[in-house]
Design brief:
The protein is an all-alpha fold. The protein contains five helices and no strands. Helix 1 runs antiparallel to helix 2, helix 1 runs parallel beside helix 3 and helix 3 packs parallel to helix 5. The longest helix has 34 residues. The model has no long low-confidence stretch (mean pLDDT 78).
Length: 137
């Protein structure tokens, strides 16, 4: 009985993250499209549009897709967005927020061990990209 309540709470949390993410990323991408219109074919713009299309797909079909698949999609899309933002803007990127955001989301869905591992992965990627940017590689 309690396991069912926890699983339903996990489903509601992931579905809510998908809905809020769709709204926020949709507004952000529309604003970026208006601001960066001449640069709409850059790797950053194409990756953002691709993530938006995938997010729309996952949000519309959220009742037919399993919880693990949806949560892994959220985690890896945040990871991709973080890496692209860091490569593009470096330390000035707002993608640093994802370093804190992902372990919080993961701690609701998975064990704390997996949350710490993902935190270590995100921090190490952040440090690696920071080092490469500082060396101008």
């Amino acid at each position: 009985m309690e396991t069912d309540n926890i699983n339903s709470l996990r489903h509601l949390t992931v579905d809510l993250v998908l809905k809020i993410g769709l709204l926020l990323i949709g507004v952000l991408i529309i604003a970026l499209f208006i601001r960066d219109y001449p640069d709409i074919y850059s790797y950053r713009a194409i990756s953002n549009y691709s993530l938006l299309v995938l997010l729309v797909f996952f949000t519309l079909l959220r009742h037919k897709i399993g919880l693990n698949f949806k949560s892994n999609f959220i985690i890896w899309s945040l990871f991709i967005a973080m890496v692209i933002g860091l490569i593009d803007k470096g330390a000035q990127s707002t993608a640093k927020v994802y370093i804190v955001l992902v372990p919080v989301i993961v701690s609701f869905l998975y064990s704390y061990k997996k949350s710490y591992l993902l935190l270590a992965l995100f921090v190490s990627i952040y440090l690696l990209i920071g080092y490469l940017k500082s060396e101008r590689i």
